[in-house]
Specification:
The complex is a heterodimer of chains A (338) and B (272). In chain A, 36% of the residues lie in helices and 14% in strands. In chain A, helix 2 packs across helix 10, helix 5 crosses helix 13 and helix 11 packs across helix 12. In chain A, the strands form two sheets. In chain A, strands 2-1-3-10-4 form a five-stranded mixed β-sheet, with helices on both faces. Chain A has a five-stranded mixed β-sheet with strand order 7-6-8-5-9, with helices on one face. Chain A is built from 13 helices and ten strands. Helix content of chain B is 78%, strand content 0%. Chain B is built from ten helices and no strands. Classes of the chains: A alpha/beta (338), B mainly alpha (272). Chains A and B meet through helix 1, helix 4, helix 5 and strand 7 of A and helix 5, helix 8, helix 9 and helix 10 of B.
């Protein structure tokens, strides 16, 4: 349908309502309902409406992995203007889901968040073109109108790497209507979402992954605030362990979660969930020797991403952060193979 | 209004300085709030951080503010013209008014997000979208106030015009139009702020940048938020607020300079 950059317009309002967030690092006691005795309540804030990119977290929830670890997890769906990074940093939500590039950029601006596990080894971000355009690879992208969020990191990187001759960049309006109508239009998307939707609408989409030109941030990362890692490593470890279990199960048996997602997000059709989950699996397993390593992260990948963002002048000032402060491998357990 | 003495009296001086002192108090309050424990700089940056960020991004900030100001101003002028014309029609024809005025109210309640795609499809990508939304949002207060102004005539004055056998044309030019001015000015004051909001929200929901770098406040806000640049986000917010205030002030100045004669109640004469 639409794709965002993790953008927060109503931030000023949000802070008025939410300022003075708890400074103590105990998990946010914001979830409603009766707590089951003995379970610790935590919240997980998504960066978007519930879709297959959040599947593993829902899997851990509905199959009881979180409860088995002693956590009462409430998943709070996001939306178009969700300020996940700041909400989690301020302690309004205990954990959040966001992509690696956004985490590094936010960290360089002094937002103290740290990534814990990486459900998607390969970034789903793509540029979707019409098959009829004859464009086969991103480096050949030329002579089209390109609808994308031009301030987003992937977009800045794309423009620094591809000449984009004859390309007019226009804003992405959040839906694929213009793409369906205009054979000269290309647009941003997630490989398991917009191209599948466009094909269902009878169009001829071709997805050109941005990872193919080297920009490949971990996606749908589980993250939390620095203070929680320091104060409650036990809670963090439980959350990571259970989430990994959920993700491993989801890529093999997505159906139970897809049923839940269909209830939660009525904008997504069943077909899209089925095909989306299929398309998601190779992204989760990309480059892993062993499926049990789901969620793993490497310092090299983070370092590469940081250097790319610095080259794009998105880390301000350059050198203000180190790659290894933005993630923590200690909680990955068996998944931390490398 | 009589002119004051050459040297301001202490009371006048105090009145003139009061807003400055008020601003200082507000800035101080903001600064204190931002330093409270638990208030993180990425939730509420202090005025010092915001000012530094504004200075760092100054050319971009001014350019964006200027473009948004241009779109808002064009939108506002359009709604004055179109809204004024519609108000005229409504005041001429009670039937038209009865038929369409209730629906003009609905202009207020159309969710912008819903029509954004439609507007872009009709007008294409570009600043025209933002201008249109500035127009769209600021239209209703002009229609509503203009209609009230043109239809509510001082009955005794109307009788006087009839008594002197004034033509309908004369009644319009000399009685109804001048009588509507204060209402229109009040409408324009409301619309001034709305036009700025329209231009910003328009750019935010529909975009409108077809040339790299030539964006307004809406896009700049969008990007600053996406890149977690909260200091700059606040600087842009302050710029938006100041722009709205400047528009409001501009309407007041125009009123004072050119419309003063009629802005007083009922178009009474003002001695000079």
């Amino acid at each position: 349908m639409r794709r965002r950059v993790g953008v927060w317009f109503w931030a000023p309002l949000g802070l008025l309502l939410g300022c003075g967030g708890p400074a103590d690092p105990t998990p946010a006691p914001k979830a409603r309902g009766d707590a089951t005795p003995g379970l610790e309540r935590v919240t997980l804030r998504l960066n978007w409406f519930p879709e297959v990119e959040h599947g593993g977290f829902y899997d851990a929830l509905i199959h009881g992995d979180y409860r088995a670890e002693g956590l009462e997890v409430t998943i709070i769906p996001g939306g178009v203007n969700t300020a996940v990074l700041r909400e989690v940093a301020a302690g309004q939500a205990t954990f959040g889901v966001e992509n690696a590039d956004d985490i590094l950029v936010a960290r360089s601006k002094g937002v103290p968040v740290v990534a814990l596990m990486a459900p998607m080894q390969r970034s789903p971000m793509c540029i979707m073109v019409h098959e009829s355009s004859g464009i086969r690879e991103l480096k050949d992208l030329a002579n089209v109108t390109l609808a994308m969020s031009s301030g987003a990191p992937y977009s800045v990187y794309l423009r620094s790497r591809v000449p984009l001759a004859g390309v007019t960049v226009v804003p992405y309006l959040g839906h694929i209507g213009p793409f369906l109508r205009n054979p000269k239009l290309a647009q941003q998307g997630y490989v398991f979402s917009e191209p599948i939707l466009a094909a269902q609408e009878g169009s001829d989409p071709r997805a050109l992954p941005v990872s193919s030109i080297g920009f490949n941030p971990y996606s749908s990362l589980l993250f939390t605030r620095d203070a929680l890692v320091r104060a409650r490593p036990d809670v963090v470890a439980k959350m990571v362990r259970a989430s990994i279990r959920g993700w491993r199960r989801y890529i093999d048996e997505p159906e139970p979660v897809n049923r839940r997602l269909a209830e939660l997000n009525t904008a997504v059709k069943w077909d899209m969930l089925v095909k989306g989950a299929q398309a998601l699996k190779p992204l989760v397993l990309d480059g892993l020797d062993d499926p049990s390593a789901v969620g793993t992260m490497t310092k090299e990948r983070w370092q590469t991403l940081l250097e790319q963002l610095e080259a794009c002048k998105l880390i301000d000032p350059p050198g203000s952060i180190r790659a290894d402060e933005a993630f923590d491998l200690r909680f990955l357990g068996r998944s931390n193979g490398r | 209004m009589s002119r004051g003495p050459l040297l301001p009296s202490p009371r006048r001086l105090a009145a003139a300085l009061a807003p400055v002192a008020g601003l200082a108090v507000l800035l101080l309050l903001w600064s204190c709030l931002s330093r409270l424990p638990g208030v993180e700089h990425f939730l509420l940056p202090g005025p010092d951080r915001v000012a530094l960020s504004a200075r760092k991004h100054l050319p971009e900030l001014l350019g964006a503010t200027g473009r948004t100001a241009l779109w808002s101003a064009c939108g506002l002028v359009c709604s004055l013209l179109v809204g004024g014309a519609i108000a005229l029609v409504f005041s001429w024809s009670p039937l038209m008014r009865a038929a369409f005025h209730p629906y003009a109210t609905l202009l207020q309640t159309v969710p912008i997000v819903a029509i954004g795609g439609l507007v872009t499809q009709i007008l294409g990508y570009g600043p025209l979208d933002n201008l249109f939304l500035a127009f769209f949002l600021s239209l209703f207060p002009i229609i509503a106030n203009g209609t009230v102004g043109l239809t509510s005539v001082n009955r005794r004055l109307l009788e006087l015009f009839t008594l002197y056998d004034a033509s309908p044309w004369q009644t319009w030019i000399k009685l109804r139009l001048p009588g509507a001015v204060p209402h229109l000015v009040a409408g324009a004051k409301v619309s001034a702020g709305l036009s700025v909001i329209g231009a910003i929200v328009g750019e935010y929901t529909m975009g409108g940048i077809t040339e790299p770098g030539r964006f307004g406040l809406g896009y700049a806000i969008f990007t600053a938020a996406g890149l977690s640049d909260i200091d700059y986000l606040f600087a842009l917010t302050v710029a938006s607020v100041l722009l709205g205030a400047a528009f409001f002030g501009a309407v007041e100045v125009i009123d004072a300079l050119f419309l003063h004669r009629w802005s007083r109640e009922g178009g009474e004469r003002v001695e000079r």
